[in-house]
UniProtKB/TrEMBL annotation:
GO terms for molecular function: ATP binding; diphosphomevalonate decarboxylase activity. Its EC number is 4.1.1.33. Pfam families: MDD_C, MVD-like_N. It comes from Delitschia confertaspora ATCC 74209. The lineage of its organism: Eukaryota, Fungi, Dikarya, Ascomycota, Pezizomycotina. This is Diphosphomevalonate decarboxylase. Residues 12-183 form the Diphosphomevalonate decarboxylase-like N-terminal domain. It catalyses: (R)-5-diphosphomevalonate + ATP = isopentenyl diphosphate + ADP + phosphate + CO2. Pathway: Isoprenoid biosynthesis; isopentenyl diphosphate biosynthesis via mevalonate pathway; isopentenyl diphosphate from (R)-mevalonate: step 3/3. Keywords: ATP-binding, Lipid biosynthesis, Lipid metabolism, Lyase, Nucleotide-binding, Steroid biosynthesis, Steroid metabolism, Sterol biosynthesis, Sterol metabolism. Residues 197-351 form the Mvd1 C-terminal domain.
Amino acid sequence: MTDEIYRASTTAPVNIAVIKYWGKRDPKLNLPTNSSLSVTLSQSDLRTHTTASCSPSYPSFDSLLLNGSEQDVSGARTQACFRELRSLRRNLEGQDASLPKLSTLPLKIVSENNFPTAAGLASSAAGFAALVRAIANLYELPSSPTDLSRIARQGSGSACRSLFGGYVGWEQGKEVDGSDSVAFQVAPESHWPEMRAIILVVSAAKKGVSSTTGMQTTVATSSLFAARASDTVPKRMKQMQEAIQIKDFETFGKITMMDSNSFHATCLDTYPPIFYLNDVSRAAIKMVEAINAAAGRIIAAYTFDAGPNAVIYYLQENEAQVAGLFKAFMGEKDGWKGTRGDAIQASEEAF
Ligand code: PMV
């Protein structure tokens, strides 16, 4: 091999769950206690752009640069992704001796998020999805998005859903090795292109309790949790997929809000309790309720991940009543704008 640099780039968008993943049955493999479902934002919206390269001329260690700053790659999650991808490449190299031995070379990963880092939005999903696909492209692996979702899941659970566009499920699976815990596409983005999301940046601060710690404490202490995992979520997974298939926004919205509430209820039921929502989050919930009451039906749906930032789903035809009202109320400060969704900055004083 010469000192050639091998390189491949890709992008992966953020996904926002409407049926939440919360609870791991295997923390090492990131195997969940329930299936989940999300909407992947458009490529032009919040996304991570990643270039993976390798070369005999590189220093002899793997490296990852995120938004210009060096990241630690020694963590078990990142290592699991590197290991799986290298092993697939090694198989290819074993079958075809003419292939360069890229699996033996140090990797250099360079990632950029196109949204303000200060927005405090969960980026690990897009980050790991982009990292895994960039390396898979670099290694010219014949892997399908399903195969890659199995690997990205080990980086960050929710990352497996960002390997697909549109409406995406993550099947919890039954196998102990996680081989059937993969993402699948419920419908492409083009199936329901009127869907919009507005992201209300309530706080740019890092979340107080990490999702991994939070999930483990919830599983260990919450009595609400078992019923959510075994009964509530399986029913909702079915209803949600049907609602998406027939483009029934009222059902989509109602399940989205109820599932967010259910997830945050298990957080409150965790001991010691976990509070991700704050007063601004609760004011946003009230505002959505008021919008829906004025419309006489559900035209807006809120959902919150492990933090106070609200994501509001609505259909384009209701842009003025939903996004217009939120923007008028809070003003557009340090916002981020995309084609599928906007992010607007809310402050504690806004309400
Ligand atoms: O993938 P993680 O470990 O960052 O966990 C994500 C958990 C939630 O965002 C709260 C829910 C979800 O399904 O994305």
